[in-house]
Write a structure and sequence with these properties.
Number of domains: 1
Largest sheet: 18 strands, antiparallel, barrel
Distance between the termini: 41 Å
Radius of gyration: 23 Å
Structural class: mainly beta
Oligomer: single chain
Order of helices and strands: HEEEEEHHEEEEEEEEEEEEEEEEHE
CATH class: Mainly Beta
Number of strands: 22
Helix content: under 10%
Strand content: over 45%
CATH topology: Porin
């Protein structure tokens, strides 16, 4: 039923579009790029019986078409296709995928903007780790290789933005069909960055894990939605948000029995409900930009560290950040903390606290034809860290060659520690048009 409501909204926008299109001369643009990436994850672990390491070749084509009809109507159709050929854990792998980036129809006036289709909604203000950026799930591999902006996955949505007096904006979003986060859209089951359980080992030996994905059903009760109010008071930009949805990253619970006699463990990948409220602020003091963001997970679920179980909990995640631009340099630093607490009656081992220090340095050279970015995360409690460096050079107008290296380490239970052996390098050629 909720999918039908979105279709009704699309139909209404089409009627408005037809009326405006009849009165306006369309203006169209087409842009995009093609890229070819060679990447290697030399120590990526597999099952205990397989060799470590992955070597891959990834090719991508991205197209972005936009058509505007006067000042009210805009149509955007942006999508990408990517293919992979390589070797993971000693076995040849092939994969291909095509995905929307943003395919939307937007009708706007001075007081309201209505959008329907498949797209992205970016909430929050901190760098890379944004606690209130909850609408779009991410692809973990693309996050580590390329960053959060490239990692977001489009979702089907209906969106209304109302421009209120005094410069305030009320943004409402409804997502009728759930879409999960992925570890890698290209061959997820064998991806070097997958955290899905593959086997359980004990003194008696290793037992393979068979995982079944359990997604929210296509039903009226499975819709997700939220709103964000943003405004400016003096020199401070602020926003408040609320969201009711599902956990995008799966949690693993013991599943039903397998075929009698099968030597494997059954596990279900589930996506429990979640409720988040929060806010963010941003201001400028001289050459410094100051930001803060806080999200309270009123209804949260944590992965048990001692067994396949999902535990009901509450958590608070927030941080403060500063950034400064000086000439060709931009430097930013963020302190991000998380506190988690199990609900009464729950028991188990969980990662209760995290403190992360996030920093980045960007530098451009030779009239923007040379770029260098270093990004780092450090968690002192788990002694974990992630450092990624990216260097790019423009060979000619629209032609870029990039090289990157990433290093991960850790000795705790956080995500960086669980990915501690996924150091990587890549070389990518990209041509824009």
């Amino acid at each position: 039923m909720k999918v039908r409501r979105v279709l009704n909204i699309v139909g209404a926008l089409c009627v408005l579009a037809a009326a405006d299109a009849a009165e306006a001369q369309p203006a169209a643009t087409l842009s995009g790029y093609t890229s070819l990436m060679f990447d290697a994850v030399p120590d990526a672990p597999g099952a205990s019986t397989l060799p470590a390491g992955a070597v891959e070749l990834r090719g991508r084509v991205f197209l972005d078409g936009r058509v505007t009809f006067g000042e009210r109507l805009a149509v955007r159709a942006a999508a990408w296709a990517e293919g992979l050929a390589g070797e993971r854990n000693g076995t040849a792998r092939r994969a291909a995928v095509a995905q929307p980036h943003e395919i939307t129809l937007t009708w706007s006036t001075r007081t309201v903007e209505l959008t329907a289709g498949a797209g992205q909604v970016v909430w929050g203000r901190l760098d890379e780790f944004q606690p209130t950026d909850v609408v779009n799930p991410i692809d973990v591999t693309r996050f580590f290789l390329e960053g959060r902006a490239e990692a977001r996955r489009a979702v089907g949505l209906a969106r209304a933005r109302v421009f209120l007096p005094g410069g305030a904006t009320l943004d409402g979003v409804y997502v009728p069909v759930f879409r999960a986060a992925t570890f890698d859209m290209l061959g997820e089951a064998t991806s070097p960055f997958s955290l899905a359980p593959r086997e359980v080992c004990a003194a008696a030996g290793c037992l393979p894990v068979v995982t079944s994905s359990v997604r929210p059903p296509l039903a009226a009760s499975s819709g997700q939605g939220g709103a964000r109010l943003s405004a400016t008071a003096g020199r401070v930009d602020w926003a408040l948000m609320a969201w009711r949805g599902f956990e995008a990253v799966p949690l693993y619970v013991a599943g039903g029995p397998l075929v009698p006699g099968a030597r494997a463990l059954a596990v279900d990948a589930v996506h429990p409900r979640t409720t988040v409220v929060g806010g963010d602020v941003e201001t400028v003091r001289g050459a410094w930009g100051l930001r803060g963001e806080l999200a309270w997970h009123v209804e949260d679920t944590l992965q048990a560290g001692d067994r396949f179980a999902a535990l009901a909990a509450r958590s608070v995640e927030g941080g403060v950040g500063v950034d400064r631009r000086a000439g060709d340099y931009r430097v930013s630093a963020t302190v991000l903390g998380v506190a988690r607490r199990l609900r009464p009656g729950e028991a188990g081992i969980v990662d209760r606290h995290d403190l992360q220090l996030v920093t980045s340095v960007d530098r451009s050279f030779a009239r923007e034809t040379r770029r260098l970015r270093v990004f780092g995360v450090y968690n002192p409690g788990d002694r974990s860290a992630f450092v990624r460096g990216v260097g790019g050079v423009s060979l000619r107008d629209g032609w870029w060659l990039e090289a990157s290296a990433g290093w991960l380490t850790g000795r705790g239970a956080d995500t960086l520690s669980r990915l501690a052996e996924r150091d990587f390098v890549y070389l990518r050629a990209r041509v824009y048009f």
